[in-house]
Design brief:
heterodimer; A: 115 residues; seven-stranded mixed sheet; 57% strand; B: 114 residues; mainly beta; six-stranded mixed sheet
Chain lengths: 115, 114
């Protein structure tokens, strides 16, 4: 069966420090991968998605970047964190093509607090 | 582009009462529709989905949702809620062709009162 791992679960970082959040998927190949941010009252905001290695689509201009160095690995980064980067970050994956598995599957999330 | 509107940010309801969580969407193309549930500090879990066919879809824990194309709605209902249903509920859409983007609403916090 497929599983998604996201770490760390919680993170407290000072303003101006770098960020690296990692997400890996097991049990499937060539998944679509996603990074979402959840802020109070704003629902889930799609930040980045990827349909293949090295293919990243950015949805919102911001202080963050994403990379997909391997098929089942998706990394969210920042060179210098801002206070406004605080939030709950969720990684997700979905199957490419087909009609059966059309939903997205989510990791457990990372609570990032920038201080 | 698609968008999802969940007008109710919070819905308080007494235990064993019925509840409806509203979801409306906007899209110029055909979409798949989803309801997800999120418990505190956890990821999202799929509750139910509409792909095609029967417009009424059901989950294993008593929730149901009805796709209404003319009203572009996908409201979630449960005839009798339990304390354990207290959570945040998100409606989402994805177009049926190949963009693979899931667009979510702002969520509805369901609080079941004893």
């Amino acid at each position: 069966s497929q599983t998604i791992h996201q770490w760390p679960a919680t993170l407290v970082q000072p303003v101006g420090s770098p960020l690296s959040l990692e997400c890996t998927v097991e049990g499937t190949s060539n998944p679509n991968l996603y990074w979402y941010r959840q802020a109070a009252g704003r629902g889930l905001q799609l930040l980045f998605y990827s349909v293949g290695i090295g293919q990243i689509s950015s949805e919102v201009p911001q202080n963050l970047s994403a990379s997909r160095p391997q098929d089942r690995q998706f990394i969210l980064s920042s060179k210098k964190l801002l206070l406004s980067d605080s939030g709950f970050y969720l990684c997700a994956w979905s199957v490419q093509g087909g009609r059966g598995n059309t939903e997205a599957f989510f990791g457990q999330g990372t609570r990032l607090t920038v201080v | 582009a698609q968008s999802v509107t969940q007008l109710d940010s919070q819905v308080p309801v007494f235990e064993e009462a019925p509840v409806e969580l509203r979801c409306n969407y906007s899209s110029s193309v055909s979409v798949y529709l989803f309801w997800y549930v999120q418990y505190p500090n956890q990821g999202l879990q799929l509750l139910l989905k509409y792909l095609s066919g029967s417009t009424l879809v059901e989950s294993i824990n008593g929730f149901e949702a009805e796709f209404n194309k003319s009203q572009t709605s996908f409201h979630l209902r449960k005839p009798s809620v339990h304390i354990s249903d207290t959570a945040e509920y998100f409606c989402a859409v994805r177009d049926t062709s190949g963009t693979y983007k899931y667009i979510f609403g702002t969520g509805t916090r369901l609080k079941v009162l004893a």
